[in-house]
Amino acid sequence: MTGIFKAYDIRGSYPDELDEKTAEKIGAAFALLMNFGTIAVGRDPRLSSPALASSFIQGCLAAGGSVADFGLTSSPQLYYAIIEGKFAGGAMVTASHLPSPKNGIKLCRERAIPLSGDEGLPVLERMVTEMPDGRVHAGKPHAGTYTNGDLTRSYIDAVAGFVHNPGTLTVAADAGDGMAGPELKELFAKFPSLTPVTLNLKPDGTFPHHGANPFLPSATTELEESVRQNHADFGVAFDGDADRCIFIDERGERVPADLITALVAEYYLTREPGATFLYDLRSGRAVAETITRLGGRAVRCRVGHAFIKEQMRQENALFAGELSGHYYFRDMGFCDNGIFAMVQMINLLSIKEQPLSQLIRPLLKYSSTGEVNIRVSRTDPIMAALSAAYSDAVIDHLDGLTVDYPSWWFNLRSSNTEPLIRLNLEADTRIAMDKKMVEVLKIIRDTDPTMEIERG
C-alpha cells in the first residue's frame, strides 16, 4: 500500500501495490469520511477494475455507507452523476492513461469536488493505514444499501445540448478501447449533419491497439492516417477514462494541447466577453497572450485536476486547459471532459468555417520542446543546480521550478503520477530552443549522471 496515495488520486500496480483488500479498506474509510452518505461508484474497462470496484463497494457497505453502482462508465459521466444525483461523493476505479497493469481510484465528495493531497487524501490514507487487517469495522449498526445507477441518457442529452448549429463536418474519433466509445456512438447519432469516422469504440481493458495514453505520438498514428484517408475536418483521440483528449488537424498532424486551450477560449469569449480562463504553467506564452488580447482574463495555475478544479471554483473560471489534454468546463461542474472538449471543437469549426490548421497557425509564434520525461535518481539537487545556474532569471516555485527570461523559459516539475521529472522549454526561435535545451539537459546530467530521457 506504500506510495499509492498520490497528489490527487490513488494509483498503483495491481495486485502488488493496489489489491482487493486495500480497495475494501479504502471503501470503508471513504464511507466514514463521507458521513455514510450514498456514494456513486464507476469503473473503467481495465481487467482488474471489476474486482477492485467490487471490493471498494463491499468495504463501503460494511462500514455503513450506501452505494449507487454505475458500473462501466467514463470519469466525466460519473462526475455528472455525482452532481445531478446529489450524491455525497463518488469513486471512479481507473488509472486513466497509464498502462493496463496499473489501476487506481479517483475520489470526489459532493458536487464532484475531488479529494487531493492538500485536502482529504492524507486523512483517508491515515484511516486506511490504521484499519486492522482481515475485517472492516462497521461505522453504523447496519450495512448500507446497494442500488444500480444509470444516467447515461441524461448525460448524453446534457452534452448534446451544448452542440450549437453543427455544420457538415467529418469527425474522426478514436476512443482508444476506453470509455469514450459508447458515449461517442450515442452522441453522434443525435447529429445527422456530422459524419463520424470512429475507431476502437469497444471498451477493452487490455488496450490492444495503442495503449490508453493519447499524449504519446505513437498512440495517434492510426487516427492521423484515418483523418487523411477520410478527409476529416479534425480528429480526436481519448484516453482510457475519457477525461482527456488530443486533437489532430485536417492534415493529419497533432495540435499542441495548450494551443487548443487558446482556441477554445477564443470561442468562449465570443459568447461571454471578459470571462476568466485558467491555463497550466506548462502552457506556451501564446495561450495567455491570446486570452488577454481578446479581452479575457488569463490565470496561471499548477498542474493536476484536483488543484485546477479548486482554483476554477475560486475564480469562477469558465474554462481551463492543461498541456496534457485535460480540458475543464464550468458548464460541466468545473470537471475535465474529453467528449465536451470535442463538442467545443465542433462548435468552433462550424462557426469559423476555416481549417483547424489555419486557426492554429497564428498561435505558432514560439518554438517548444513539448513535454520531455526524464528519469533521475533524485530531484532536489537538480532543482538547486538549475536555480543557481539561472539565478538572474525570474524564478518561481508554484509547481516545481519555472525559470523565465524575456526570450525563453522552462518549467521542471516532478510527475504526480509517475517516477519522472517533466521538462517543458519554449523559446522565441527554434535555434534558441535547441541551444537552451542542450544547456539545461547538460546541467541535469552533470548533477545526476544516471539521468535518462524517456522516449514515447
What order do the helices and strands come in, and which of them pair?
Blueprint: E1 10-13, H1 20-33, E2 38-43, H2 49-62, E3 66-72, H3 75-84, E4 89-93, E5 102-109, H4 121-130, E6 146-148, H5 152-160, E7 170-174, H6 180-188, E8 195-199, H7 221-229, E9 234-238, E10 245-248, H8 257-269, E11 276-280, H9 285-293, E12 297-301, H10 305-315, E13 319-321, E14 327-329, E15 335-336, H11 338-352, H12 356-360, E16 367-368, E17 372-375, H13 380-389, E18 394-396, E19 401-404, E20 408-414, E21 421-427, H14 430-447, E22 452-454
Parallel strand pairs: 2-3, 2-4, 3-6, 7-8, 7-9, 11-12, 11-13
Antiparallel strand pairs: 1-5, 4-5, 9-10, 13-14, 14-15, 16-21, 17-21, 17-22, 18-19, 19-20, 20-21
In short:
The chain is an alpha/beta fold. The protein has helices at residues 20-33, 49-62, 75-84, 121-130, 152-160, 180-188, 221-229, 257-269, 285-293, 305-315, 338-352, 356-360, 380-389, 430-447, and strands at residues 10-13, 38-43, 66-72, 89-93, 102-109, 146-148, 170-174, 195-199, 234-238, 245-248, 276-280, 297-301, 319-321, 327-329, 335-336, 367-368, 372-375, 394-396, 401-404, 408-414, 421-427, 452-454.
